[in-house]
Amino acid sequence: MAELNGWIVFNGHLKTAKFQEYVDWFVDSCEKQQVTIKRIGNDELLVMTGEKGMTLCGNKSRYSKPDFIHFADKDLHLARQLEQQGIRLFNRSSAIHICDNKSVMHGILNDQHLPMAKTIIAPMIYSGMSLQMMDYLRIVEEKLGLPLIVKEAYGSFGEQVYWVETRAELEEMAHRLAGIDHLYQQPIFNSLGTDLRLNVIGESVVAAMKRSSQSDFRANVTAGGTTQPYRPTKTECQLAIAAAKAVGADFAGVDLLIGEDGPIICEVNSNPHLRSIYDCTSINVADHMIDYIKHIVTTH
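Below the sequence we write its predicted structure tokens.
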């Protein structure tokens, strides 16, 4: 089998240790498996429109067409144009788009009749406009009850997620998020401060951990949660795989809540970080990602 040549595309403006470590981690795993990999910042390739349609511009002497790209960013314009060049992206732009917006993601998962917490998507208000009518909050309260959870559509690491106890707090939050895509969600009280992270590669769960917090309704490690290795049930594995498939993700970190009648999907992450799952389970998910990439690229 010929040696594969790939790129990892990352955000050139995210220079934090957390994001740089992800790139280094993936590159190291590629090199262990004799896969040639090149680091490409999204600011090195620009999408341009003009007489010849949409094209890419950059230092062309640096870029020969790769066999695959691990797209570790959310620059959808760039991702879509790379796909137009006939390059296989892991994950595809469509999966990144769905997972990046929680409102879109819940709609897609609902289309597949997958179990989720009862959710109401806030009516759109144009950016810069103030909230004029709050009658819809009465419906939110009637359907979901109080307390409830408010989530901004765009957010990571458990941030932009809020606990709302009273109608006054609900109205305050609605004013605060006017012009920002957000949703209202009924809490799964059986799972407050606890969730399950299952890393899905293709149609397999390759690692799982249980996250818990004693001080926060969010279980994210970034929000102070702790982790322990977890052996998911067959039902949990099937649900996580179904969720990843619904959004079209090759790789996904699927977060499940523990419902009274079985697991419930919290969300699907298209670019889950690798450090916390490795520290918890000693499983290098990147190795499984590269195995999957090699299989897909060489058999299609």
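The chain has a mean pLDDT of 92.
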